[in-house]
Amino acid sequence: MSHLTTIELCKENMKFSSGHYTIFSPTRREKLHGHNFTVYAAITAKTDENGMAFDYGIYKEKLRKLCRGLSEYFLIAGDSQYQRIEQEGDCTYIHFHNEKIPFLSKDILILPIKNVTVEELSKWMVGELLAEKQELDKHEITAILIKVFSGPGQSGSYQWQREDS
After folding, report:
1. What residue ranges do the domains of the chain occupy?
2. Is the pLDDT of residue 20 over 70?
3. Which of 29, 57, 81, 93 shows the greatest Cβ crowding within 10 Å of its Cβ?
4. Average pLDDT, the chain
């Protein structure tokens, strides 16, 4: 008989350093700044007859890869209703309110999120893990919780739960 268990992952190398700004309204945003973000994951699955849920090294590597992909970039919210992104040669310009903010295109990463917040980053990471549905089914994963910390004691999270569980 199987039961549900939760594997929690929060390794030293599940982190990324990135710049960003948070958009508060159509006319107000933070100044450009950065954080050393850390990532925590809780993955719930059924245990097998061997008393194991799944090889969680697979998910440690997936999370480390996501973090490496974000590190050392300035993160831009590609789905924000309050800004417009313009590419011009090697430069990318972000039009926000009455500002035109210049970036070298090689230094930014435009994500399909509404705002660069810990809430949206955690939701994006869950979405990246959910993209491999066959693997989720194979490991009988029933829930995933991701927390992204922008500093000690300050995080946002997003949780997915399988509808048929």
Report:
1. 4-78+114-161
2. yes
3. 29
4. 94
DSSP state of 106: G
pTM: 0.93
**DSSP summary character for residue 31:** P
Residue-by-residue DSSP string for 89-137? TTEEEEEETTEEEEEEGGGEEEESSSS-SHHHHHHHHHHHHHT-HHHHH
Block residue for tokens 């994006």: 124
**Which tokens hold the place of 119?**
């809430």
Distance of CA 14 to the CA centre of its chain: 11
- Whether the per-residue pLDDT at 165 is higher than 80: the answer is no
* Architecture of the domain delimited by 4-78+114-161: 2-Layer Sandwich (3.30)
Q: Count Cα neighbours of 27 within 13 Å in the Cβ-side half-sphere.
A: 0
Distance of CA 79 to the CA centre of its chain: 15
Please say if the pLDDT value at position 2 is more than 80.
Answer: no
